[in-house]
Amino acid sequence: MVYASGIRLPCVPHLYKSSAPSGFNGDRRRKIFAGKSSKEFDASPLIITASEKVLVPGSQSDDPSAVTDQLETPETVSEDIEVRNGIESLQMEDNENVEIEDHGPVTLQGKVSSEKSEVKREVGPRSIPPPGAGQNIYEIDPNLLGHRQHLDYRYGRYKQMCEDIDKYEGGLAAFSRGYEKFGFIRSDTGITYREWAPGAKSASLIGDFNNWNPNADIMTQNEFGVWEIFLPNNADGSPPIPHGSRVKIHMDTPSGIKDSIPAWIKFSVQAPGEIPYNGIYYDPPEEEKYVFQHPQPKKPKSLRIYEAHVGMSSTEPIINTYANFRDDVLPRIKRLGYNAVQIMAVQEHSYYASFGYHVTNFFAPSSRCGTPDDLKSLIDKAHELGLLVLMDIVHSHASNNVLDGLNMFDGTDGHYFHSGSRGYHWMWDSRLFNYGSWEVLRFLLSNARWWLEEYKFDGFRFDGVTSMMYTHHGLQVAFTGNYSEYFGFATDVDAVVYLMLVNDMIHGLYPEAVSIGEDVSGMPTFCIPVQDGGVGFDYRLQMAIADKWIELLKKRDEDWKMGAIVHTMTNRRWLEKCVAYAESHDQALVGDKTIAFWLMDKDMYDFMALDRPSTPRIDRGIALHKMIRLVTMGLGGEAYLNFMGNEFGHPEWIDFPRGDQRLPNGQFVPGNNFSYDKCRRRFDLGDADYLRYRGMQEFDRAMQHLEEKYG
What we know:
The structure is a single chain. This protein is 26% helix and 16% strand. The chain is α/β, with parallel strands linked by helices. Among the domains are: 182-281, Immunoglobulin-like (Sandwich), CATH 2.60.40.10; 542-666, no CATH class. Helix 6 runs parallel beside helix 7, helix 8 (438-454) packs parallel to helix 10 and helix 15 packs parallel to helix 17. It starts with a strand and ends with a helix.
């Protein structure tokens, strides 16, 4: 590591020499015209809310029956739509080469050799199937027939979106490659930078390369709100922006002058002693780029997932690195018998204590743990060990950080998000995406594909899906299983259509990838393929199991009812696979208690050494800790998950370093003096042969290997 311009960088900026010419494989310029049409894109009421009357496109009546009549026929939603948020789209084709803006063909992140093969894979074995009839869900679950009006409308909106993407963008495969068009694009002749910011009045690119002069590199805007600038190579052929240098976009917005990190930035870093982050132009020379050595493992019949957080994976009170996790933690996961690791907090987040869920830079891996190439090395090592690597991806909301993130990016409240109260999550204090926006769809679909394509992740755990699917976000709502709770005015159809599209893209282009959704509501059709009318996830997190165990742990032993336990474990929808877990990271956070702590409490501090007498509480706690896991794995679902350290009953809780704060309501919340003491994993306890933790870890290991052998 070296320091340049006050920032810790992966290496000294190098001169870049591009390889042989390469292009977009024949991308043609195609405009999405904002001319007259039957209706506007945003006017289609993909979201049906209880607080307002919503008319289907084309209906002029205020009569509620008009809504019903329109919704019954999906054909009514298959009209042409006007794409208000469109941009000049470069349609991906395989038969011609066209230069863009006469600056030479655009390369894909400086990589030349893989482009042709990628396109061929997409049109061959890697292809997104066309929408099906979407009617099989009624055969799978006849109870859905009572809500056919809503479900057919939902599928009609999905089919219409597919048609529009095919028409205006050349298909979902091309639409999901927005990272080849937006952000910084390297070509033989220079660097093109594009940014969608329709609210900005003016924009310029600033950074170390031009001494942060806002008048040096002025950008131009097209009629669709996309700002662009081309920077030619230096006279000696070196790139105009050195690798590792800081960059931002300077904008005059309705909210004033602001400097923002580019939305599609691939790396961002917080300088020592500074609060704001800086975008980093990350484009190392070819010889320094990490090259994957090992193939991705095949998807196993049953997943055994080890949920992990790289930053807190050290036994020391520090932020751990990708390299240390690769060398120390991955072999441990393999020895324990798990076949997949699910990594939290991958996307860059300015606030460490958010556990990675308040994302500021969606395309950038967290710089606290290392560089993008360090993360690639970690994933490659996991593949060498035969481990799938799943990413905990956050598309349900975004940080409300105005300095570092997407919030108020172009100075307007409704840029990437819904405006007003609908765009704000009052419990999470974060912003909510507008899934009905064309450019938001491009951004999120491309983001999911970026992590699969560039970093070779093997799939995702989508966070906060319940919040996405309902306009009430699941807050202060008790789901009873009544189907009207899932298919009514509170359903955000925009968001459900996005989930269908992203699952379509994942399974079409990456057939071995795994898609898991975190849904607490029990939404029917959640894990049914999209072509059959479902949302398209492979698994849902069976969150009711963990809640059941906590409920029982608060009761007397004689009040534990085996029938109720078995019912909770086996209560899942036919043909919909579940990830079972007794506890995840949620139960380990400060303010909650792990199962081990519920069972053994303070006795864990004094009676876990083998050379001391045990106590009845310790004996009971260890026995139940083992049995709870065994019952959960045996009955709870088609996959199993454990949060790191809980396999041996990790003592205490997780508390991220934080200072004192005062909430908007005036309540004072004391901090922990920014201590890392409770933000680590004491793997040494599970390895110590003189502690009872070792026996709990060995039981979990035996359980994983038993499942591997017998299924």
